[in-house]
């Protein structure tokens, strides 16, 4: 058995960043910017009014209190003349500042009669002008890699970048295996249960920028598994669930090898998740997850997500850990690194009593995994422990 750390090193060696693709801006939210992009314009492209009011020359103000209104500038429609020292141009928010002006009197601060305005409140001395390029300038960059949030989409749009280079999302084929499984919504036979892992894992991967394909459930026969691998061969990553252990019906490893998988490792000193396997299969990476529902989900957090992140062009990094204080004692750990279902809140970390890797209800109650090193002794309330957020 190898350590979790060694397994991650093997996995990182199996995958590299995928190529980028160019997609329309409207589809780019949530994607990872793959190439640094450069603004080819200034924003605003002209000095612009920030308020509705009257544009004047600030040099004369506030001594000058009366101005003659000589025209109008609106957003999208500049005033083409030049304002003299005691002249004003009616202006609206977003309009280019007319030649000869550099200051906007708020309309609330003047009284207008016909074509004359009189300043009624000279205390407001702000210019209310947005300088040319005050937001961004020609040549300013958004640096890759970057997870594009809605505010980035707005900035890209303002920069007039209509097509965005983003990292291609890895395609992950998910194969649930087992004679006992039926799909959610179907009627299980007396010895059957509902396939849950594939749905949980697909949800987790989709939330982390992968595209998932849920393949039909593969029965516990070599031809059924072989067919599943054939169907999955165009994926970037093939994830099997179950059939990974040592039972007579655990055929995934053998069939994968017969289908051309070059194994990188099998079995890790981890709990849950011991019978994990991985290797290369044609152009794809294959990861065989254990069937126990919590084992599969925990392995997805600890191994699949870092692999997906590397495929998306991010640096090689294990699931991020934080430290927290125990809110209740925990017993000693055994010979495998233990990822215990736990809850963290303002009182600290409480490790759940029931840690069987079949218990999805316990996993759903957990908001973190408390990580116990190999042979970690019993720990007391207040001791520091590492956790991984779920
Ligand atoms: N003699 C030994 N037995 C087992 C060992 C061992 O070392 N020696 N390891 C145990 C550990 S640890 C695990 S984890 C499991 C993993 O077994 P498999 O990967 O072969 O998984 P299955 O046997 O196919 O299934 C285990 C369990 O999970 C249920 N399952 C499977 N797939 C799904 C799915 N898609 N959705 C929901 N539930 C699923 C399946 O019905 C079984 O109950 O092996 C131990 N045994
Ligand atoms: O290692 Mo198994 O994955 O404990 O349940």
Automatic annotation (TrEMBL):
<comment type="pathway">
    <text>Cofactor biosynthesis; molybdopterin biosynthesis.</text>
</comment>
<dbReference type="InterPro" id="IPR005111">
    <property type="entry name" value="MoeA_C_domain_IV"/>
</dbReference>
<dbReference type="InterPro" id="IPR036135">
    <property type="entry name" value="MoeA_linker/N_sf"/>
</dbReference>
<dbReference type="Pfam" id="PF03453">
    <property type="entry name" value="MoeA_N"/>
</dbReference>
<dbReference type="InterPro" id="IPR036425">
    <property type="entry name" value="MoaB/Mog-like_dom_sf"/>
</dbReference>
<keyword id="KW-0479">Metal-binding</keyword>
<keyword id="KW-0500">Molybdenum</keyword>
<dbReference type="Pfam" id="PF03454">
    <property type="entry name" value="MoeA_C"/>
</dbReference>
<keyword id="KW-0460">Magnesium</keyword>
<dbReference type="Pfam" id="PF00994">
    <property type="entry name" value="MoCF_biosynth"/>
</dbReference>
<keyword id="KW-0808">Transferase</keyword>
<feature type="domain" description="MoaB/Mog">
    <location>
        <begin position="173"/>
        <end position="310"/>
    </location>
</feature>
<dbReference type="InterPro" id="IPR038987">
    <property type="entry name" value="MoeA-like"/>
</dbReference>
<comment type="similarity">
    <text>Belongs to the MoeA family.</text>
</comment>
<comment type="function">
    <text>Catalyzes the insertion of molybdate into adenylated molybdopterin with the concomitant release of AMP.</text>
</comment>
<keyword id="KW-0501">Molybdenum cofactor biosynthesis</keyword>
<dbReference type="InterPro" id="IPR036688">
    <property type="entry name" value="MoeA_C_domain_IV_sf"/>
</dbReference>
<dbReference type="InterPro" id="IPR005110">
    <property type="entry name" value="MoeA_linker/N"/>
</dbReference>
<dbReference type="InterPro" id="IPR001453">
    <property type="entry name" value="MoaB/Mog_dom"/>
</dbReference>
<protein>
    <recommendedName>
        <fullName>Molybdopterin molybdenumtransferase</fullName>
        <ecNumber>2.10.1.1</ecNumber>
    </recommendedName>
</protein>
């Amino acid at each position: 058995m190898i350590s979790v750390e060694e397994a991650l090193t093997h996995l990182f060696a199996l995958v590299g960043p995928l190529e980028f693709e160019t997609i329309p801006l409207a589809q780019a939210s949530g994607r990872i910017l793959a190439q640094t992009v450069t603004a080819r314009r200034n924003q605003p492209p002209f000095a612009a009014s920030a308020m509705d009011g009257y544009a004047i020359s600030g040099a004369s103000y506030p001594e000058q209190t009366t101005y003659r209104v000589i025209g109008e500038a609106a957003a999208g429609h500049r005033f083409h003349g030049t304002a003299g020292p005691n002249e004003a141009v009616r202006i609206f928010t977003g309009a280019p500042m007319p030649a000869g002006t550099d200051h906007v009197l708020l309309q609330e601060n003047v009284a207008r009669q016909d074509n004359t305005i009189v300043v009624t409140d000279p205390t407001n001395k702000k210019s209310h002008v947005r300088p040319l390029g005050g937001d961004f300038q020609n040549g300013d960059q958004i640096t890759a890699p970057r997870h594009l949030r809605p505010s980035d989409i707005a900035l890209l749009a303002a920069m007039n970048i209509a097509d965005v280079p983003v990292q291609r999302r890895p395609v992950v084929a998910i194969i649930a295996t087992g004679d006992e499984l039926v799909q959610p919504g179907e009627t299980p036979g007396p010895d059957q249960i509902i396939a849950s892992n594939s749905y949980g894992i697909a949800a987790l991967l989709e939330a982390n920028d992968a595209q998932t394909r849920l393949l039909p459930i593969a029965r516990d026969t070599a031809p059924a598994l072989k067919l599943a691998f054939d169907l999955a061969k165009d994926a970037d990553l093939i994830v099997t669930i179950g059939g990974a252990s040592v039972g007579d019906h655990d055929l995934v490893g053998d069939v994968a090898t017969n289908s051309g998988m070059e194994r990188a490792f099998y079995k890790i000193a981890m709990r849950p998740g011991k019978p994990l396997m991985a290797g290369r299969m044609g152009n794809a990476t294959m990861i065989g997850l254990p069937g126990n529902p919590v084992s599969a989900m925990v392995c997805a957090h600890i191994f699949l997500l870092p692999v997906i992140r590397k495929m998306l062009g991010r640096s090689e990094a294990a699931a991020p850990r934080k430290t927290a204080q125990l809110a209740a004692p925990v017993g000693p750990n055994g010979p495998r690194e233990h990822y215990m279902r736990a809850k963290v809140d303002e009182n600290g970390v409480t490790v759940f009593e029931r840690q069987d890797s079949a218990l999805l209800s316990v996993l759903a109650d957990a908001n973190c995994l408390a990580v116990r090193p190999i042979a970690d002794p019993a720990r007391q309330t207040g001791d520091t422990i590492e956790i991984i957020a779920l």
